[in-house]
Amino acid sequence: MERVVIALGGNALGATAEEQRAAITKASAPLVGLIAHGYEIIVTHGNGPQVGTIAKAFEVAHGVGGDVPAMPMPECSAMSQGYIGYHLQQGLLAELRAQGMPWYVATVITQTRVDADDPAFANPTKPVGAFYDEATARAMMAAEPGLVMRPDAGRGWRRVVASPHPEEIIERESILNLLDHEFVVIACGGGGIPVVKGADGALHGVPAVIDKDFTAGVLADAVGAQYLFILTAVDKVSLDFGTPEQVDLDELDVRTAEHYAAEGQFGSGSMLPKVMAAVEYVRGAPGREAVICSLARAPEAMAGNSGTRIHN
Hints:
The protein is an alpha/beta fold. It has helices spanning about 15-35, 50-65, 75-100, 135-145, 170-180, 210-220, 255-265, 270-285, 300; strands at about 1-10, 40-45, 105-110, 110-115, 125-130, 150, 155-160, 165-170, 185, 195, 205, 225-230, 240, 245-250, 250-255, 290-295, 310.
């Protein structure tokens, strides 16, 4: 069977546990549909809304009396992987059994190694957690060296963390072992828990958020996947998106994709990281393809009838 890594957006999973269960129930049929087409799948997912909610809950609870300890970002990321994975396991297993398939489903709480010298650590940009007024934010920074807080769109001050590039999937061998035993594997949620390797060789979590699309590409490379599917809210990558001149693209070669990216055709907080993650993955080896498409039309995209295919 050919192997496919599928990246689901965290925003598509909803803001509450109830919304997430409903979204996953709806998503499970097209995902399992890929198995029916003869593909072995690994699912990864975003966690932006979810990890932010977890971080905010601990921040607020810690600030009320101090009885609840503050929770570091790596642990918040691990928590989000666990509960999103739990819902994905339930939804996918129910759909597998409904279709008479014998596959199992497992979530791997995944660490992603980043470079301790990545320039992103000198310029944190990803907002997480609760909003504060300026005085409170400055007092928090004074009390906690290394904490960076900045104004966020006029809504108050908010913590920002780095977004380093993923370098290595630590649990690669565990993922491969599960794939060899007929498991649908859920891994690298939220881009993975960011870790760096210390001078002693041990891994240490760092306060950061890794872009899940770039991690999906690194994961696909690590497990020898033939395809990378990045599922989003639109059916295809477009030029002049949202204007009367919008043009939907059926395919892109990597050089043309980079040209359009340099022109500013893709939104920095939306389509740009998806396109560049696809380009990075495709460039890694001959014969690879990435597909950016909507979740609902994923099986059609696998058959070449939807989505934007990115190739060398």
